[in-house]
Amino acid sequence: MIRLSKSCLSKIEKDKVLSILDKEYLGMGHEVEQFEYELSNYFSRPVACVSSGTAALHLALQALGLENDDEVLVQTITYVGSFQAIVASGARPVACDVDPSTMTIDLKDAEKRLTKKTKALMLVHYAGGVGNLGEAYTFAKKNNLRVIEDAAHAFGTVYNNSLVGSKSDIACFSFDGIKNITSGEGGCITTNDRTLLKQVADTRLLGVENDTDARFQNSRTWEFDVKKIGWRYHMSDIMAAIGRAQLSRFEELSNKRRLIAKYYDASFCDQQRVSFFKQDYDAIVPHIYPVRIAGLTLETREALRNKLNKKGIQVGIHYQPNHLLSLFSDVKAQPINNAEAIYPELLSLPLHPDIEKSDVDRVVSTLLELV
Question: Topology of domain 11-248, per CATH?
């Protein structure tokens, strides 16, 4: 079976985890502090680590002080975690269309959905690409919106010679098992808004003020105050140990992802029915490799997916439009034309650092034969 995605681990990660187990302190402690320090050096700005990418989005949105019925513009084609985080903060996600060439938010469509309640813009960096990020920030500034970048797919991506996250208003990353780097589960928030980051640091520990410093000394705060609602969203030392090992290997891991994506591009460049999203893989670290297969319907795509699976090739679908899900259904949002036209034709092909070129050849030849 050629897997769609997987955790790619070495002896380095396993030895790091064993070293934490030997210390018999498994919670949030010195290892998390070191991971935050290394990530801060990587981004050249402050970082707070949390338990997941969704937790990062939730805490960032909450720290903005959003109130009930405040609105956040977000593209409809994204993982449901983006929408769930907005709802968890008390705000309302406003589903927007996607740019069919980049699968990032369509700003012209977003502009039509602006209201007096719109407080923030969530940018989803689909497949590692960021679209026209500069134009998105111009749009946000013009409309007095805070920007949260859902950069779960984009760790290591460069835009205008700067790392994604290094100059963002707020950027949220995921380190789950299959992301560009993993800590098993986990994520982080990076921003120069130190007031916001301080609130995140407290809120990830149930709102206990200043408990982070104690935890980093493998201790606890026993007498404290709590002024805002908090959550158990902190990272553990085991997770941080895996993350630190992956960060040390990131050049190797990212280069392999780029190599495989470029090889897919070359394999599909002369195909009429199978098209890919053109990305600069010298700047982008791809998390997934989606293609569009012209003429597919939901039923024929599912049949194709099953046939590929029977031939030992896992494929995925990234993602269902959120405005078509029951929880987020909004008759005023429908139809969202680009997203609804593209969704039945989307198929994600296997991409991870353990894939070889021979695997790509097999995926491509099998897909084209079935198509």
Answer: Aspartate Aminotransferase; domain 2 (3.40.640)
